[in-house]
Amino acid sequence: MSNDHSHLRGQSALSAQGLVKRFKTGRTFIEVLKGVDFDARHGDVTMVMGPSGSGKSTLVAALSGLLKPDEGKVTALEANDLWSLSAGKIDRFRLDHCGFIFQGFNLFPALTAKQQVMTVLKYQNVGPGEASRRAQAALESVGLGPRVNQRPSELSGGEKQRVAIARALAKNPNLIFADEPTSALDGKSGEIVIKLLRAAATERGAAVICVTHDPRLEAYADRVIHIEDGRILDDVRRTPDANPGPLSH
Ligand SMILES: Nc1ncnc2c1ncn2[C@@H]1O[C@H](COP(=O)(O)OP(=O)(O)O)[C@@H](O)[C@H]1O
Ligand SMILES: [Mg+2]
């Protein structure tokens, strides 16, 4: 299997038009996405920034096949209209092509770091020997070689987030969705995490879509999109800083 999408660099990986999402609260509906257009390219870190409640997580969920929008269309890789696919095909799309990194790590308490990574490979029908090798390599690539047999309770927040990144990267996804990946971390751990995401885009050609309200992460982005109250305010292409300053508080 190809572990590299870098030949696709600069090409569109994901696009969406006219996304609308409403939630029912009591007797009224609130509109959380108000007609959002979006696109992201291979090799880019696309940063979506906005205050709490602006619709960032809802947007990521709609783009990644987790939450069906009420209106609009998502085109992702070869899926011309993601939300027109059956639930099973959408699940398959996520398993095959998407890596997820969340603020809360989402690790299984009972599994070791290596087992967390092997579990996702199993769903891709990777045999146990190969899964073990790839899990080990993924954990080593995030600097957790000596920690592969630890469980989440024995790892720091930064280490847990690195396990989540190893788990996301082990299947070499085209699309990486990171929702507030650094907000539970200290500055040093946050810096390690955003640098790993930057490297996934630069070295593997993944399209990294990173949602955050932390302005310090902008330094790592190829593109910064601001969202407020369910609308895109601006969308600026930039060159990532060569030597970003420390992420300390
Ligand atoms: N399942 C839901 N039911 C009702 N309201 C929701 C639901 N999910 C999110 N919301 C509301 O939608 C708005 C945007 O939420 P969210 O996308 O999580 O924002 P962000 O990630 O930018 O903080 C918030 O006002 C939130 O309370
Ligand atoms: Mg959120």
Distance between the termini: 41 Å
Beta-strand fraction estimate: 25-35%
Question: Would you identify the CATH architecture?
Answer: 3-Layer(aba) Sandwich
The overall average pLDDT, rounded, is 93
Largest sheet, spatial ordering of strands: 5-6-7-3-8-9
Overall 3D shape: globular
What is the number of E strands?
9
Task: Identify low-pLDDT runs.
Answer: none
- Tally the structural domains: 1
* SSE order: EEEHEHEHHHEHEEE
Structural class: alpha/beta
Bound molecules: adenosine-5'-diphosphate, magnesium ion
> In CATH, what is the homologous superfamily?
P-loop containing nucleotide triphosphate hydrolases
Q: How is the CATH topology named? A: Rossmann fold
Specify the number of helices.
6
Give the fraction of residues assigned to helices. Answer: 25-40%
Largest sheet: 6 strands, mixed
- Measured on Cα atoms, how large is the radius of gyration? 18 Å
**CATH structural class:** Alpha Beta
Overview of the structural elements:
By secondary structure, the protein is α/β, with parallel strands linked by helices. It has one domain: 3-Layer(aba) Sandwich (Rossmann fold), CATH 3.40.50. Helix content is 30%, strand content 27%. The strands form 2 sheets. Strands 5-6-7-3-8-9 form a 6-stranded mixed β-sheet, sandwiched between helices. A 3-stranded antiparallel β-sheet has the order 2-1-4, covered by helices on one side. Strand 6, helix 6 and strand 7 form a beta-alpha-beta unit. Helix 3 crosses helix 4, helix 3 packs parallel to helix 5 and helix 5 runs parallel beside helix 6. The structure holds adenosine-5'-diphosphate (ADP) and magnesium ion. Magnesium ion binds next to helix 1. It comes from Caulobacter henricii. This is ABC transporter ATP-binding protein. Belongs to the ABC transporter superfamily. GO terms for molecular function: ATP binding; ATP hydrolysis activity; transmembrane transporter activity. It holds the Pfam family ABC_tran.
